[in-house]
Specification:
heterodimer; A: alpha/beta; Transcription Regulator spoIIAA; 5-stranded mixed beta sheet; 5 helices; 26% strand; disordered C terminus; B: alpha+beta; Phosphatase 2c, domain 1; 3 domains; 8-stranded antiparallel beta sheet; 5-stranded antiparallel beta sheet; 13% strand; elongated; disordered N terminus
Chain lengths: 137, 740
């Protein structure tokens, strides 16, 4: 079932070397892009990038996993840890369209922990400072 | 470290050895020789110092005892031996040569311990010489031959004793007198005239004792020497006293005399063994034997005297004691036939002699070097000994630690029973080769009501730090399962309870129960992959598992234990619970994945065991960055049971409206319309602060939805409060919107 797509996807995007790139869009929003494989050995770099961004006062962190070929539970741990350390009013959003990665988020129940958007634009739009109107029940 | 405090020891050792070595040049010779000197001084200076005199009595005793039997034959050359003895005693010389100057030696001896000297000097006739019983003794031995000699001896003895005139002389004289008395007896026996002598001797003995006592009492009194002979002795004494040396020289000339007397004694001596009544003989022989002994040594091997020296030295060393015991000694010797002591002394002596010689020969510089080397050797020996002890201790500690680790590991990774009821069970754990090791855990046990419980989990973080949390999570979950909570309730409660204790660490867990009676598998996950269910018939027979809306891990600050799945497994089936280390093993650059795991499990057949499965995975994977743990339940086919399938999802009001929930409902088989309706109902049922449980059950393939309200108040008041406030705000906004 899902495992088939897992393997196909992870093998499709395996070439990219690992890199973490951080862009500060403004004083509030920072985008951290990860390419390559996020695992036990590379996850700490993502962690430090996110922690740095938080320490510099960015309240909205967007983790772009569009170019991430592989992610294991260690990377999930990093996202969970950062998410926990967010001060009130800060947010963590993830950009991910890979079915394999989405599957990991879903299986681990993390898809409820932070907002996951298919594209960076969607994420930025959703996390824009403009208050969302709560849909009344 | 524990060894450190001991370090002083080698130092102390070294110091000690150094001291010993430094002292040895002085000591070694002195010990042996010094002893001689002492005794010599004593002997020569007997005049001045009483103790030396006494030192000898023991010596004679020793000599006598060794050869009570042999004494008689030895007696052949009595004169010589004593000479040695004396020589040594005199300490004049280790020098055998000097020793050989038996006569002089005798003289000395005589000088030293009047008694000893007497015995020795007198040779066989010692008795006479000693007490000045010379006359008597002389007579006795003279029986053999040279009475004159005997007398000579006696005289010599006189001289000697006179030389010793000193108080000690008196005592020793007494002693010797005693000793000799018996000897005289024996000899008397052998000779003929001795019967009379005997009596005389006995009298003399008594007298000697008395004299001894007297002299002791007087201490300083020189009169002591002999009872009757005192007269004889006394005259000579004055002469000798003034010049100890002269005494020596005087003795020298006598030597021949003694020798001859010895020869004379030789006659009687052989007879002794037969004649002698054991104790008496020995005792008596004390003096006689001594003398005889000597001769042999003297005539035969001159070297022997050297041995005598140390003996004398010993005796000298023992002087104080000997002094006191002196008389007693003599007496006791009479009584004790074998006198073992002497032998011991003889054994010691060659060693001492050898050492003395060696030390004498070695130049001081070399001695220093030797001492240093010795110290070094000792230090090294001590050090290696300490190292060995430490190594042994460490080895012991290591064993204990390994044992402890084994116990800990057993606590975290229990040995699964091979079978629980109808179910074949197995569990296995394969630590990662790299730094990722640690953190996986499992448990497999039977519940009271006959159900099986399985727990599999993975605590974030690796290595030793993860162990306490691993144990905590595992036992907490187990406790709730044992208490009868459903897997979902157990996970939820554990999540709420452990949130605080995990302190930043999070854990994915899967708790499951299997009811063999109803063939029902119930499991709840918190961020953990669901179990593999391989039912007979392959994919078609395997029930569908909905993974949407999975509950998050324990410890990430979110409510968990929100999902539960119930499956009935009517036929034969394999259940595999595993940790992500298995599916995250790498094959090339791919993940091992759940599909490969299914393949491996199928390949192992219906009675696959967890260990085999992990071995197969390890064999196929190129890398295993994380631990792998697996529990496998092999269910046998059973009778027909009602097919049951159920999914539970607990939602709060906010979640009830999320697209995620919609996806869940659609995955469960609800139409879009049904899903929307369900969501609306759920949101309403959850209320402002509570949650609602959506329970989907399938009957004849049709999903039936049931809503149950559930209050979370007991979990985390703070969070619920915050949620309530948020709900209020939303409600307020909504109201405002409506108002506008």
């Amino acid at each position: 079932m899902f495992s088939r797509s897992d393997n196909r996807h992870s093998s499709a995007a395996k070439a990219a070397p690992f890199a973490v790139d951080r862009r500060d869009l403004d004083g509030r929003t920072s985008v951290v892009s990860v390419s390559g494989e996020l695992d036990l050995s590379t996850a700490p770099q993502l962690k430090w990038a996110l922690v740095d961004a938080l320490e510099q006062g960015h309240a909205c962190l967007v983790v772009d996993l569009s170019h991430t070929s592989f992610m294991d539970s260690t990377a999930l741990g990093v996202l969970v840890g950062v998410n926990r350390s967010l001060a009130a009013g800060s947010r963590l959003a993830v950009v991910c369209h890979s079915a394999a990665l989405l599957r990991i988020f879903e299986l681990s129940g993390m898809d409820g922990a932070f907002a996951i958007h298919p594209t960076l634009e969607a994420a930025l739009a959703a996390e824009a400072p403009a208050p969302r109107v709560a849909e009344a029940g | 470290m524990p060894g450190r405090p001991r370090k002083p020891v080698p130092g102390a050792l070294v110091a000690l050895t150094l001291l010993c070595c430094a002292a040895s040049p002085a000591l070694a010779p002195a010990a042996a020789r010094g002893a001689h000197e002492k005794s010599a001084a004593a002997a020569q200076g007997a005049q001045s110092a009483p103790p030396p005199g006494e030192a000898q009595p023991p010596a004679p005793a020793t000599e006598s005892s060794p050869a009570p039997g042999g004494a008689s034959p030895a007696g052949a050359a009595p004169a010589a031996t004593p000479a040695h003895q004396h020589a040594h005693a005199g300490g004049e010389a280790h020098d055998p040569a000097q020793a050989r100057r038996a006569p002089g030696a005798e003289a000395q001896r005589a000088g030293t311990g009047a008694g000893a000297g007497a015995g020795a000097g007198a040779g066989g006739q010692a008795s006479r010489g000693a007490g000045g019983q010379a006359s008597t003794g002389a007579g006795a031995q003279a029986g053999g031959g040279g009475q004159r000699d005997a007398r000579h001896d006696a005289r010599t003895h006189r001289d000697q004793s006179g030389a010793q005139a000193a108080p000690s002389a008196a005592t020793s004289a007494g002693a010797s007198a005693q000793a000799q008395a018996p000897s005289a007896d024996t000899r008397g026996g052998s000779t003929g005239e001795h019967t009379t002598r005997h009596r005389e001797k006995e009298r003399e003995k008594k007298e000697a004792k008395a004299a001894e006592k007297e002299s002791r009492g007087k201490g300083g009194g020189g009169e002591a020497p002999g009872e009757g002979e005192a007269e004889e002795a006394s005259p000579e004494a004055p002469i000798a006293t003034p010049a100890p040396a002269p005494a020596l020289s005087a003795a020298v000339p006598i030597a021949p005399a003694s020798a001859s007397s010895a020869a004379a004694a030789a006659g009687p001596a052989p007879a002794q063994p037969g004649t002698v009544t054991p104790p008496a003989v020995v005792a008596s022989s004390a003096s006689a034997v001594r003398t005889r002994h000597r001769p042999r040594a003297a005539s035969g091997r001159r070297g022997r005297p050297g041995a005598a020296g140390p003996r004398a030295a010993l005796a000298a060393a023992l002087a104080p004691a000997a002094l006191a015991a002196d008389g007693a000694h003599a007496r006791s010797q009479e009584r004790l036939p074998g006198a073992a002591r002497p032998r011991g002394r003889e054994r010691v002596s060659p060693l001492a002699r050898t050492i003395t010689r060696i030390v004498d020969v070695v130049p001081p510089a070399v001695r220093l070097v030797i001492a240093a080397l010795l110290a070094l050797a000792l230090a090294l020996a001590a050090r290696s000994r300490m190292a060995a002890v430490r190594a042994r201790r460490l080895e012991r500690q290591r064993g204990q630690l390994l044992e402890d680790v084994g116990l800990l590991q057993a606590a975290l990774l229990p040995v699964a029973p091979a079978q629980l009821g109808e179910v074949l069970t197995s569990a296995a754990y394969e630590p990662a080769a790299g730094p990722g090791a640690g953190g996986d855990f499992y448990d497999l046990f039977a519940l009271e009501d006959g159900r099986l419980a399985v727990i599999v989990g993975d605590v974030s973080g690796h290595g030793r730090q993860a162990l306490p949390h691993t144990a905590l999570v595992r036992f907490t979950l187990r406790a709730y399962l044992e208490a009868g909570l459903s897997p979902r309730d157990a996970v939820q409660t554990a999540g709420a309870v452990l949130e605080r204790q995990l302190a930043g660490v999070f854990a994915t867990v899967l708790a499951a129960t299997y009811d063999p009676a109803r063939r029902l598998l119930t499991y709840a996950s918190a961020g953990h992959p669901p179990p593999l269910v391989l039912a007979a018939g392959g994919d078609a027979g395997s029930p569908e598992q909905v993974t949407i809306c999975a509950a998050p891990p324990i410890g990430i600050g979110m409510r968990t234990g929100t999902r539960q799945t119930v499956l009935s497994l009517p036929g034969r089936a394999l259940l595999c619970f595993y940790t992500d280390g298995v599916t995250e093993a790498r094959v090339g650059s791919d993940l091992f994945g759940r599909e490969r795991l299914v393949e491996e499990l199928e390949a192992l057949g219906p009675e696959a065991a967890a260990g085999e499965l992990l071995d197969a995975v390890a064999a196929r994977a190129d890398a295993r960055p994380d631990d792998m743990a697996a529990c496998v339940l092999s269910l046998r086919g059973g009778g027909a049971v009602a097919e049951v399938r159920g999914e539970e999802l607990e939602l709060d009001r906010e979640e009830a409206a999320s697209p995620r929930t919609e996806r869940f409902l659609r995955a469960c088989g609800l139409s879009a319309q049904e899903a929307a309706e369900a969501m609306r109902l759920a949101a309403g049922a959850a209320g402002r602060a509570g949650t609602v449980v959506l329970e989907l059950r399938y009957e004849q393939g049709r999903p039936m939805l049931e809503l149950r309200r559930q209050q979370l108040a007991f979990l985390d008041p703070a969070r619920i409060e915050a949620k309530a406030l948020r709900g209020d705000a939303a409600a307020a906004r909504g109201a405002a919107g409506v108002a506008r």
